[in-house]
Amino acid sequence: MQEFARPQSLLLQLALTSFVFLSFVNTGNAGITSTFIRSEWPSVDIPLDNEAFVVPKGYNAPQQVRITQGDYDGKAVIISWVTTDEPGPSKVQYGTSQKGYDLTAEGSTTSYTFYKYKSGYIHHCLIDGLQYDTKYNYKIGQGDSSREFWFQTPPKIHPDASYKFGIIGDLGQTYNSLSTLEHYMQSGGQTVLFVGDLSYADRYEYNDVGLRWDTWGQFVERSTAYQPWIWSAGNHEIEYMPYMGEVLPFKSYLHRYTTPYLASKSSNPLWYAIRRASAHIIVLSSYSPFVKYTPQWVWLYEEFKKVDREETPWLIVLMHVPIYNSNEAHYMEGESMRAEFESWFVHYKVDVVFAGHVHAYERSYRISNIHYNVTSGERYPVPDKSAPVYITVGDGGNQEGLAGRFIDPQPNYSAFREASYGHSTLEIKNRTHAFYHWNRNDDGKKVATDSFILHNQYWGSNMRRRKLKKHYLRSVVDPITNY
């Protein structure tokens, strides 16, 4: 047994060394522009009669079922669905036993019109007081048309709570979107951080705008009915269409997709924060005022002061428009938000900022551009160990196609970039380390393309980490054999 154990131990050490080496290569000084570029452009929408848009059978059967977090700390969910024939009850039956549902919660119903389209009856039901780390079954609808699903609550807020997030952006409803969604569902992710641009319904006209919101809800239900998606809004959610008489921004999005904004004392559902497992997640709106003293600016100023890295060491920011981007598409569009908020990201040691909007993948080094002003300072981004990693994941698969033209030469701040479809996962292992992967969709296959170990900004520089070194090294080594 000793002869066998020795090679196995050496294999583990070699695996750890290899992974760390690859991570070092991917985060070194030489940025990589991948030569892989998909040829399909534009991406093709799934036909309306495809099974991806199947509507459940039965009179007034609930459809477009989705979950998001319903409170600040992960002990509540908001369950939403649509009925088309009549309002019906906005009631959710739920419980932890597979044999029955011993608890109920009552929700509310809303609807809206867009041009001549009239939505179905949209139900939102808050279920609170849940137990951590528990599987709940739930039932919505009536009689033979009722439907049953389940969800898993996160572990209790704790600095060493492990958790796996998926990151998806700019999804749409094409065959490439379907590939992205199916690959994510194979990843073992427990919650999606969605960085904006959901249905792309605004690329249609008149009644088809509403129809394509319905089909997208049916399309993503295979995932959204079973785990939370944390929503952020993109430019395709604005839907400002004066030629149709529609001038109220975010009308469809705000009726359909609720957020727990009040739980973080936000004044608007487009920006808010949640805590989940060991992560504090801040969602920002790229299309709402954020300059000094506006409501979003004031809220973020107060929210950053509430972050407790002793309880939630991982600090993650979501937005739609990237503030670092070396693609010709949407180049410099995030500059105004960068100028306003980047110094806060560095001061509070944000670990990672996820964005979408650009239909390609890109990851930065830890850099900042906070020292420059119009008269002095460093004019270009410089390495900054206190800065976050900036990652653009706007490659979900929508019909606009890929952004295949990168700026040449590759800027020093850009670590890896590629124009193809995919999704990311962030697997938090403990308070010091997380594993990050970007997975390319290559002709229907999931291909792990960019990966690295993300070191926590707070605990990675805290002296107390030395006392925990042995314990955390073991917890990092064990899963590496799976990569």
Automatic annotation (TrEMBL):
EC number(s) from the headed UniProt entry: 3.1.3.2
SUPFAM superfamilies linked to this entry: Metallo-dependent phosphatases, Purple acid phosphatase, N-terminal domain
Ranges for domain Calcineurin-like phosphoesterase: 164-361
Highest taxon listed in the record's lineage: Eukaryota
Residue stretches making up the Purple acid phosphatase N-terminal domain: 62-153
Enzymatic class: hydrolase
Keywords: Glycoprotein, Hydrolase, Iron, Metal-binding, Signal, Zinc
Gene Ontology MF, one: metal ion binding
Residue ranges constituting the Purple acid phosphatase C-terminal domain according to the UniProt record: 387-447
CDD domains: MPP_PAPs
Co-factor requirement: Zn(2+); Fe cation
Signal peptide from the UniProt entry: 1-30
Reaction(s) catalysed (UniProt annotation): a phosphate monoester + H2O = an alcohol + phosphate
Family: Belongs to the metallophosphoesterase superfamily. Purple acid phosphatase family.
Designated name of the protein: Purple acid phosphatase
Gene name of the encoded protein: LOC115977123
